[in-house]
What we know:
Elements: H1 5-23, H2 28-31, H3 42-65, E1 71-72, H4 90-110, H5 115-118, E2 121-124, E3 128-131, H6 132-156
Parallel strand pairs: 1-2
Antiparallel strand pairs: 2-3
Amino acid sequence: MDFDLAAGRELLERTPHALRALLGGLRPAWTDATEGPDTWSPRMVVVHLIHAERDNWLPRARAFVEPGGPRPLPPFDQSAPEAEFAGLSTDAVLDELVRLRGESLATLAELRIGDAELAAEAIHPRFGTVELRQMLAAWVAHDLAHLAQVSRVMAKQYRDAVGPWRAFLAILDR
């Protein structure tokens, strides 16, 4: 499927609400569980998405559409700023993601991205020359990857409890 901004936006609008529906009001046994050492809990995935919302997608999108391109994209540290959100409930963190995503999508609409802008290029620190359409498609795929990650982490909490049904639940062994 080729990237379509309207179709991608449909998913980007829904991701924070899907996470709130899945994680909101749950006990920490679900939201703070991990797959083992050095892995993220569902809550940390949400914190990472907030971090990416503030420091990755929109700052980089602006670099594509500013005159004088192709410009270097600003660097992005993918680690989640856990300490910043340590005192907040998971519900508060989810609310912040919903708020920030709404702002991001409003800003994206203000950029008035058409075919010419989608083809605009910038210089990624690792990949070299990339197009805006590729980065926006990556944003959508990034959301989907983290939705799958959250589901996988949560499912694995019942890895042993499912008994023989584990044979039918491939997610438990990924």
